[in-house]
């Protein structure tokens, strides 16, 4: 059943034929990845509440004395180029990472899984998701997100109701000079006002707005699904490999020369030595699945409640425009006035033309 292309693990060799030391660096590596993920979550939470502004400012001052001034200028120029100008760097990085993952899947996992008699439909599913993902990645990147111009200004102004908190009436963009429709925002990177502005996505080199939000949502769904599918296929392959080879029943010689029964930690480490690229890719797509899955849940929540990332962030931060009010007036609190039920909210995302030309809002 198993051909000659399978490594020595299935060719009859087993761990007790040679001494293999325990690789504690893998445990440390897992601990490191966990620490990075927890730190990332903590940074997001603290940045949202503003707790990190002081430490970041003080840290920047300290590093300004350590790092040479020429290097500081170079880093600032690079940061400005990557995150504050339109460029295709992250598009190339996205396609490169995606290509590397699929190359490893095709080069090793696909062939090995065929030898283990996996279903061909099961193995081809990641390629189907890749095709759909690339289509909607392209659509998200090239579609006009909803640029506000003099030609469509009057058409877009009555589409959404002004809440007088985040979006007061009769506001003009200080850069474009145009009247700002409700839910619009000027993107400093693209240098244009975008209707129903969600965020500027560096991976797309484009804003996400009224006209391409549906493409972005499907892109995110298929990207998450492809990462999860690859993680499942890779994990099932390794598990079936261990079962077929009987590796879990073997013994090994530890650092002290004692014969030990195979345990889970050593089994993972042995698989890492035998299939380093597959195990590394499995760890990468698992972490990617967690990150993408979390972000996808957030985007689905915004979609179901008819909010944009811009509105959610400003509403929770209290970053509302300064509008002249009587001194005795109470501060206004942001409330989402645009949600009209799940199906109506989904219709607004996937059929934006019906909203803009159907006279849905006043």
Care to describe what's here?
With 362 residues, this protein is mainly α. The chain is 57% helix and 5% strand. It has twelve helices and six strands. It has a two-stranded antiparallel sheet with strand order 1-2. A two-stranded antiparallel sheet has the order 3-4. A two-stranded antiparallel ribbon has the order 5-6. Helix 4 (89-115) runs parallel beside helix 7, helix 5 runs antiparallel to helix 7 and helix 8 (264-274) crosses helix 9 (276-304). Mean pLDDT is 82; it is low at 1-5 and 16-23.
Output the keywords:
362 residues; mainly alpha; two-stranded antiparallel sheet
Summed up:
By secondary structure, the protein is mainly alpha-helical.
Number of strands: 6
**Count of alpha/pi helices:** 12
Give the termini distance in whole angstroms: 68 Å
How would a crystallographer describe the biggest sheet? 2 strands, antiparallel
The H/E string reads: HHHHHHEEEEHEEHHHHH
The share of residues in extended strands comes to under 5%
Percent helix range = 55-70%
Q: Detail the poorly predicted runs.
A: 1-5, 16-23
Order of strands across the main sheet: 1-2
Helix/strand-derived category reads mainly alpha
| Coarse shape | globular
Membrane topology: Multi-pass membrane protein
Protein name: Palmitoyltransferase
Pfam family, one: DHHC
Organism: Equus przewalskii
